[in-house]
Amino acid sequence: MAIDLSHPAEVRELAERTRAFIREQVLPVEDQHDGNITAAGGEKLRVELQAAARDAGVFAPHAPVEYGGHGLGMSDRAPVFEEAGYSLFGPTALNIAAPDEGNVHMLAHIADPEQKQRFLEPLARGEVRSAFAMTEPAPGAGSDPSALTTRAVCAEGGWRISGHKWFITGADGAGFFIIMARTSGEPGERGGATMFLAPADSPGLRVGRHIDTTDKSMIGGHCEVFFEDLLVPESAVLGEVDRGFDYAQVRLGPARMTHVMRWLGAARRGHDVAVTHVAQRRGFGSRLGDLGMVQQMIADNEIDIAATRALLTRACWELDRGEPASNATSIAKTYAAEAIFRIVDRSTQMCGGLGVAADLPLARLAREVRPFRIYDGPSEVHRWAIAKRAVSAAKRAQRDAE
Amino acid sequence: MAIDLSHPAEVRELAERTRAFIREQVLPVEDQHDGNITAAGGEKLRVELQAAARDAGVFAPHAPVEYGGHGLGMSDRAPVFEEAGYSLFGPTALNIAAPDEGNVHMLAHIADPEQKQRFLEPLARGEVRSAFAMTEPAPGAGSDPSALTTRAVCAEGGWRISGHKWFITGADGAGFFIIMARTSGEPGERGGATMFLAPADSPGLRVGRHIDTTDKSMIGGHCEVFFEDLLVPESAVLGEVDRGFDYAQVRLGPARMTHVMRWLGAARRGHDVAVTHVAQRRGFGSRLGDLGMVQQMIADNEIDIAATRALLTRACWELDRGEPASNATSIAKTYAAEAIFRIVDRSTQMCGGLGVAADLPLARLAREVRPFRIYDGPSEVHRWAIAKRAVSAAKRAQRDAE
Amino acid sequence: MAIDLSHPAEVRELAERTRAFIREQVLPVEDQHDGNITAAGGEKLRVELQAAARDAGVFAPHAPVEYGGHGLGMSDRAPVFEEAGYSLFGPTALNIAAPDEGNVHMLAHIADPEQKQRFLEPLARGEVRSAFAMTEPAPGAGSDPSALTTRAVCAEGGWRISGHKWFITGADGAGFFIIMARTSGEPGERGGATMFLAPADSPGLRVGRHIDTTDKSMIGGHCEVFFEDLLVPESAVLGEVDRGFDYAQVRLGPARMTHVMRWLGAARRGHDVAVTHVAQRRGFGSRLGDLGMVQQMIADNEIDIAATRALLTRACWELDRGEPASNATSIAKTYAAEAIFRIVDRSTQMCGGLGVAADLPLARLAREVRPFRIYDGPSEVHRWAIAKRAVSAAKRAQRDAE
Amino acid sequence: MAIDLSHPAEVRELAERTRAFIREQVLPVEDQHDGNITAAGGEKLRVELQAAARDAGVFAPHAPVEYGGHGLGMSDRAPVFEEAGYSLFGPTALNIAAPDEGNVHMLAHIADPEQKQRFLEPLARGEVRSAFAMTEPAPGAGSDPSALTTRAVCAEGGWRISGHKWFITGADGAGFFIIMARTSGEPGERGGATMFLAPADSPGLRVGRHIDTTDKSMIGGHCEVFFEDLLVPESAVLGEVDRGFDYAQVRLGPARMTHVMRWLGAARRGHDVAVTHVAQRRGFGSRLGDLGMVQQMIADNEIDIAATRALLTRACWELDRGEPASNATSIAKTYAAEAIFRIVDRSTQMCGGLGVAADLPLARLAREVRPFRIYDGPSEVHRWAIAKRAVSAAKRAQRDAE
Predict the structure, then answer these.
(1) Min CA distance, C348 vs chain D (Å)?
(2) What CA–CA distance (Å, rounded) separates A102 from A84?
(3) What is the ipTM for the molecules in this complex?
């Protein structure tokens, strides 16, 4: 046993194939659509891109093998997802976009055989999309999940769910929803949540407006969703009643890391565009790429890319060992979200006026990566959690020493 | 004689009136248009907003009194322009948007009486808009103006101008252009440029596509402009032949500072939106605005606002004294562009998911202020100029000491 | 009335004289002592340096004219104190070092005629030094003054004071102490403090060890001080009983700003040393000062110097108008302390190995300026106060709007 | 084959033993000496500490087994060296301080059997110390090694070396020197250097003054060294003539990384001291460690520690695979040097006044870690190298695409 940072040969090959597929078949389509996937046109495009990914042998790297996937663990997903993220449309093409990718992960862990057949299989195969209905407008569940207000109460034949969600990614056009609702306790208590599965056409489930966010590449948008006396059967309960917050953890850690993988690919693209630009362009009697202040931006990007990857490697390894890895994923997510933002921002700066024009993809990338410092837990919330653990450990150490 | 930082009473009153006008009459219109002014619909809107500004007694604070303006110097413009910038449409309403505001400033300094009557007066009164045609695609004049390639050659009855410009703000719908063209020397030489005045309908002057930049609030957009054997008379020469780069300096210093004033207003709006948000919203058992990490963002915004204003005060005072103020304006511009970006970015972060949604104006503000770190000289070019002066001064001091 | 940033001619001349005096007479002495003033050798040195300052006509720029000073207000102190701060020994030479300078300021405002004659006059004339005994070890008064635990109780013929202070600057060798003690209320309450004057040789007043801090240039060090049943007469009360916290504010705002002035001078010296170094030295086929990454450090230093000065100008102007200026001084102090640290740090970096060696004064400057981010209120405490004001203002604005 | 980040059990045990040894036997000694090892008292102390380390079974983790070491590769050194670095005296105790550790590494790779016996063996066993004489005062070899001016010329029976070195770590008291001298070419050319071995008592080898640097924990100091017609035999040539720069690379990559390991341990100690402080101390009605701005500093430290370790892991793995790893070591060194500085600086800030006083070890740590941003290649030089590689790669990619 010794430190080893190399991926198996088949993973390296899959990453290489993904790289070629993205460059040859996906980037041109993204440019043509200026990085926007709308709910309507998006569905058609999604089917086409996924067919191409299947043909290229790169479809569903994360999904269980029995459902047509490659069955990769977290560590091995990293290089493949990063290559997919190089295009904003890449994750959709490989069926590894949020929230479907995280939902596949969670359903594979928690769903019962019938639920797997009915929901997981078509999702893994790209036949439907899904949504994860968790976040609510204030004063409900936002950065602080314990504020959950959506309620499910026992009813004849199952449960009745009432509540208002928003920022529900992919809701418009999703085939089914995973719904987080409070089955006991009061908002503010860290327990009492349950997850439910509901087809999109269930009476009482209504998708509202698209929230007009700065990012535009998520198929199905970020929507408001209303549950108005939505009746679901007993069999809709995912896992056990009142364990929803525990299951959310199963989803959250890995989902954070796959977000990092994808956005790191996007950041690398921005960096590549900028370095290519300054390697050609001249000014002030020099190649731009040979000017010290430009070199500093390039080097800082390289450092940020390397550090993001290194922290990701650590967190994925912990997850693959079955550890909760809460600290490692919080650290990697926080660093990555800020680093990715910086990388794209420096790349913009290196390209001058072109950096803020649609002639290059940098403005598009900038608008896509900014929310990552907020989505999946704002940096401030992760820092709070990291610090709390450190202070608790220091108190324990002191008590032990006394 | 002693340090005094107070503005005359009439300036303070004008700033107050502007503040009220913007809040009551302009912000609602901006929100309704989501911060976008298009060239076409924009013209109608501009006329309406400017009429309202005239009624409110806040129109053209910078323009000479004989043309209906308030005749304010640079120092006194600061508080008024900052209030106007609080709305993205405010500068247009007051007729102090780029590039018209800078063109008024320059024409008042350089134009001859006939040119003033024909071009300056209608511009100051808001009857036409204008454009300043300087920047060119690579390898032409960009961050480094000496790379100027557009040429004007002597011709029967005047000059013939040929060249290709881009990022020409306000070009679509402008009534006339101030054109920077090389009348002697070669690209790379720091001299030999001349400024010309040309009505927009001159044969050989063609406005091309709008460059699709991240900012959307500039009326007339940022366009490509082509001069194809454009013939202008002798009387079109602004000031003297071959002194264009000198005149550009007359325009650049003040124009940088009025940009700072306006964008500072925009940043302050973002900050106000965020502080109002965290003053109401609760989470983690506390008012958000009482959490330490949020307090840190608020305080850093306050510091950035104060420092921007303080550096602006210094630079404007130097300009009002008739100094070239190159160093002071470079320092103020560089600090301000980065501070304004940070302020809006922190404000976004404080508002969480809403910060990246159109429900609040922060995403809009973010997309508007980002280019200011590039427009009007990228931060890197200003830093280079600042450092060169410091190193030269050190060498001189050493020689003197020897 | 209009913005004016120029100092009166006599102030500019005093600043110039100070500049020459520091360079010619003080810097050589500082270098010789490697920036260390010990309590013992320091007293002799202080007397010599102050005699030289008197001869040069630059002694006591801040002190009332009737006591031999120049009587400058806060705004006019700025350029003079900055020149004095260029040498770590400069403030001692001019008799404007902490805490004497702040004590002169406060006594001039609060002391009664007899107290002025007995304490202020010899202090202003440089015949004695003084100390301000406020801060206490945990859990007493530190960043949070309301935690004050030192007590003064009524006694036959005056007050009996008991308590333990530390980080008392200049205590070793001081002629008298201004003591902050609680005369009513309990630790944690924001009131109930009184200031007392006590000669250093009062029985029950004991100066303990020098705390071995990273900064070494303060004459009399930072010491522990013990009050063991120290008896002071009624006439020792400075101002009124129970108003000590109010008086501390009178001292604190200006004292923060004069700290900024002095340390800004020190930072400018570091910058000058570095720019002179890179203007001469060559490497990588270029003058170091022409390399982009070095230019960036130089420019950032210039920006930090300019912004510090500009924020200082604002705060001093408010203070001179008689405003409490709490927000302006908190902003200026916080920005300055961090900027000064950055300036010295970048200057160190520019000088490479020499930057961390005693061959240049940079390591010395670095060790002196670091504590300023902590002394006089840590940056975090100032940020907290700034944010609290902003949030309160937002709440008020909202209430008014409703 | 799959990603694995776990160390072999025996390495984990060695790290644990080292941790206990440092805490129990070395930290108390460091505190007693206030972190200073002088050349004189240092030798006696070194012998004692190394004897204790041998008894604890933690001596020479890096040295070849045949010389009494543990024979660890780079990856496995990381956790052990980090534990050793937790005390400033730890590396000396384990015989892994610079420059001896790097010299052992290099001699093991390049020395011939006789040289190994004579120089490597006693060095590995801790019987002598050594120095690596490379850097020279301007205009000689500094950040840019190709500027090497020290010359070695063929002479009867060997080579005659003349030159002036400085910042030679450990020179005072070293048993022998590895000398870098130019055997062909001119200063500025990237070739023509040769390494020589010379006992410290060789005639013509003279150790000059200690350079008074901010760091004080290196035994033997940083000295000036003079070669005045130093005659060495043919057998003194290390490796081959004219290949000195190549060999320097063999030493430099690993030496950079072991520096990172050691300083990371020091930074972690600073962090631990600060977290322990804020976990106990109260202020502003709260435990300091529960205040948001303090939590932010703690979290940022945790992130910096994790990222440094993760980048180190990557670089060490590449080195263990026999790759030159120039980019990975430059990235890890640059990030680490700046992160370590930030960690200690934030830790200082968290402790307030105590952070800058000798009552806690933070001021000591701050003065030790600052030079690491300069030693072993300033951050600017590493960034320049990183950027050059990125721009070259972009140019190659473009050529390939054409």
Answers:
(1) 9
(2) 16
(3) 0.97
